[in-house]
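A reminder from the course coordinator: this example appears on the midterm review sheet, so study it carefully.

Given structure:
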C-alpha cells in the first residue's frame, strides 16, 4: 500500500488543523472565532488559508450549504505520526534516539511526561517480534 505524502503544513495551517480536529467540521466563521480567541487574525486570512489547504488536499470543503464547511482530511494522530516520521528521516537520519535526546534536551520534561514516555516505550517494546 502506497503511503500518502503529506505536504508539510505551515504554522498557520497547523493552527487551523488543530481547530478542525478539536471542533470537527467547521465554517470559516467558526475557525476564525476560535483562532481569534487567542490572537488577532483576519477573517479573509482564515478564508484564504482554508482555500489553499483545500487545494493542497489538507482539508475538504462541503459546498452543499451557503456557508461552506471545512474538515481535516486526515485525523490528528495520523498527521502527527507522518510529520514526526518525516522529521525523523530528514533531520535525524532515521535515528529515533537522536530525536528523543534532542527533544528532551531542548526543554525540561515534567515527571508525568517522563513516566508517559517510559510507559509508551514499554508498550512499544512488548509489541516487537
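Designed residues:
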Amino acid at each position: 500500500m502506497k503511503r500518502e505524502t503529506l505536504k508539510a503544513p505551515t504554522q498557520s495551517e497547523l493552527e487551523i488543523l488543530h481547530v478542525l480536529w478539536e471542533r470537527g467540521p467547521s465554517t470559516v466563521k467558526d475557525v476564525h472565532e476560535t483562532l481569534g480567541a487567542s490572537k488577532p487574525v483576519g477573517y479573509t486570512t482564515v478564508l484564504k488559508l482554508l482555500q489553499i489547504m483545500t487545494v493542497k488536499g489538507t482539508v475538504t470543503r462541503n459546498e452543499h450549504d451557503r456557508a461552506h464547511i471545512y474538515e481535516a482530511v486526515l485525523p490528528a494522530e495520523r498527521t502527527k505520526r507522518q510529520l514526526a516520521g518525516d522529521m525523523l528521516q530528514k533531520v535525524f537520519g532515521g535515528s529515533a534516539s537522536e530525536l528523543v535526546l534532542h527533544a528532551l534536551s531542548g526543554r525540561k520534561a515534567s515527571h508525568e511526561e517522563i513516566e508517559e514516555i517510559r510507559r509508551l516505550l514499554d508498550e512499544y517494546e512488548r509489541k516487537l517480534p
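The chain has a mean pLDDT of 91. The beta strands are 59-62, 69-72.
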